[in-house]
Design goal:
- By secondary structure, the chain is an alpha+beta fold.
- It has a 5-stranded mixed sheet with strand order 1-2-3-5-4, with helices on one face.
- Strand 1 (about 275-280), helix 9 and strand 2 form a beta-alpha-beta unit.
- It contains 10 helices and 5 strands.
- Helix 2 packs antiparallel against helix 3.
Length: about 375
C-alpha cells in the first residue's frame, strides 16, 4: 500500500514538472527565456507532491506561492490551474476544503488582476480563460472532497464490519459458554442424583447382607442397577451432543415429567417417603420446560437425600394456563441460607436457578414457611402457543 501511494505521488510530481516545463518551452508571448533556475523552480513545484499526503495544506500554500513567484520573475507563463490542481485535490481530500477554495480564489484574483493590468484582451480573459481556469480548479477541489467522502464511507463500512465480527465472536463465545454451563448442569444433576441413590442403596445392601436379608439386598441392588442404567443413558446423550457437529440439530430431552414416577420410586428406595400431587389438567409442555422441571425435581430430591436428613418429601406440580409451578418441600433440617444464592458446598441450587433463568422463570429456595425443613419452588412460564 505504501509503495502504491509513493508511485502515485511520483506520477503526480512528474506530471506537474512535465506540464510546467512544456509551457516554459513553448514560451508564448514572453521575452525572458527559461534558464536553469526556471527548471529548478518547476522541479521544486513537482517535488511538493511527495509531501501532499503528510502536509496537504503546506503543499498547497507552497505551490501557490511558488507559482506566483515564478510568474513574478518574468518566466514564460505556465498558467495556474494545472500546476496547482494536484495540491488543491490533496488539500480537499484531507478535509481542508475551505482553505483550498480560498487559495484558488486568491490565485484567480491575483492572476486576473495582473493580466488586466498587463493589458490582455478582456473578452478572451473573462469569456474563456478565466472560466476554464476556475472550472479546472473547482473540479480538482470537488474530486478531492469526493475522494474524502468515499474514504470516510469506506472507513465506516470497515468499522461496521469489524464491529459485526466482534459482535459475532462475542455471541459465539456466549453460546459456547451457555452450552458449557448447560452440559455442566446436566452432568452435575445426573451424577449427583445417581451417586446419592447408589450411596444410600449400597448402605442398605451392606446392612442387609450383615443381617442375612437376601431379599432386601437384592432390592437395593436392583435399584442401583436401574438408577445407574438411567444415568448411563443420560451421559450417553450428553457425549453424543459433544460429538455432534456445530450447528447440528438439537438433541431431544433425555428425561421429562413422564419420568417422575421412576424418580420418586428411586427416592423411596433410598428410605425417603415421597408424596406426589398434581394440580390442574396435565398437558404437554415445551421440551425446555419439561426438561427443566424434571431436573429441578431430580436435584431437589437429591439434595433432600444427601443433606436434609429428612424422612419425607412432598412434591407438588401445578399446571396453570400460563405456567408450570413446582414445589418440593421436606421435613429435614434447613440448609444454610447462602445455598439459596448458589454458594456454599455445592452447585445444585445454583444450577437450578440458572436453568429457570434461561427460560425466563422464577426460582426460590430456603427454609419452609413454618421454619421446619427446606423448600424449593419454581415457576416455569409456558408460551401461549
Amino acid at each position: 500500500m505504501r509503495a502504491r501511494a509513493l508511485a502515485v505521488d511520483a506520477l503526480l510530481a512528474a506530471g506537474t514538472f512535465a506540464v510546467i516545463t512544456a509551457a516554459m518551452t513553448a514560451n508564448v508571448g514572453q521575452e525572458r527565456q527559461p534558464d536553469a533556475l526556471a527548471y529548478v523552480w518547476a522541479l521544486g513545484l513537482g517535488t511538493l507532491m511527495f509531501v501532499r499526503r503528510q502536509h496537504p495544506v503546506l503543499a498547497l500554500v507552497a505551490t501557490a506561492v511558488g507559482i506566483i513567484g515564478y510568474h513574478a520573475a518574468g518566466y514564460p507563463a505556465v498558467g495556474i490551474a494545472v500546476p496547482v490542481a494536484a495540491a488543491l485535490f490533496s488539500a480537499a481530500e484531507a478535509g481542508a476544503v475551505g482553505i483550498a477554495v480560498v487559495t484558488s480564489a486568491g490565485l484567480l484574483v491575483v492572476a486576473t488582476g495582473y493580466r488586466v493590468y498587463d493589458g490582455q484582451d478582456l473578452a478572451y480573459l473573462f469569456g474563456f480563460d478565466l472560466p476554464l481556469t476556475a472550472s479546472v480548479m473547482g473540479a480538482a477541489i470537488a474530486l478531492g472532497d469526493g475522494a474524502a467522502s468515499r474514504g470516510l464511507l469506506r472507513h465506516e463500512q470497515e468499522q461496521r464490519l469489524r464491529e459485526a465480527e466482534a459482535q459475532h465472536r462475542r455471541e459465539l463465545a456466549q453460546r459456547v459458554e451457555q452450552e458449557r454451563l448447560a452440559l455442566a448442569r446436566d452432568l452435575h444433576d445426573v451424577l449427583a442424583h445417581t451417586v446419592a441413590v447408589i450411596s444410600v442403596q449400597s448402605d442398605v445392601a451392606a446392612e442387609a447382607c450383615d443381617n442375612d436379608d437376601r431379599e432386601a439386598a437384592a432390592a437395593a441392588l436392583r435399584t442401583i442397577r436401574s438408577v445407574s442404567g438411567q444415568a448411563m443413558q443420560d451421559l450417553r446423550s450428553t457425549v453424543e451432543l459433544l460429538r455432534a457437529p456445530a450447528g447440528g440439530a438439537p438433541r431431544d430431552p433425555v428425561s421429562g415429567l413422564d419420568d417422575l414416577p421412576r424418580l420418586a420410586t428411586a427416592a423411596r428406595a433410598s428410605g425417603l417417603q415421597v408424596s406426589v400431587a398434581v394440580e390442574g389438567e396435565p398437558r404437554p409442555v415445551p421440551p425446555s420446560v419439561d426438561t427443566t422441571a424434571y431436573r429441578i425435581l431430580q436435584e431437589a430430591l437429591t439434595n433432600t437425600i444427601r443433606h436434609a436428613e429428612a424422612s419425607m418429601a412432598d412434591v407438588r406440580i401445578s399446571y396453570r394456563p400460563d405456567a408450570l409451578s413446582i414445589v418440593v418441600s421436606d421435613d429435614g433440617r434447613s440448609q444454610p441460607v447462602q445455598w439459596t444464592h448458589g454458594h456454599g458446598h455445592g452447585h445444585g441450587l445454583r444450577g437450578m436457578r440458572e436453568r429457570v433463568a434461561v427460560i425466563g422463570g422464577n426460582f426460590e429456595a430456603g427454609a419452609a414457611p413454618d421454619g421446619t425443613g427446606f423448600r424449593v419452588s419454581a415457576r416455569l412460564p409456558i408460551p401461549a402457543s
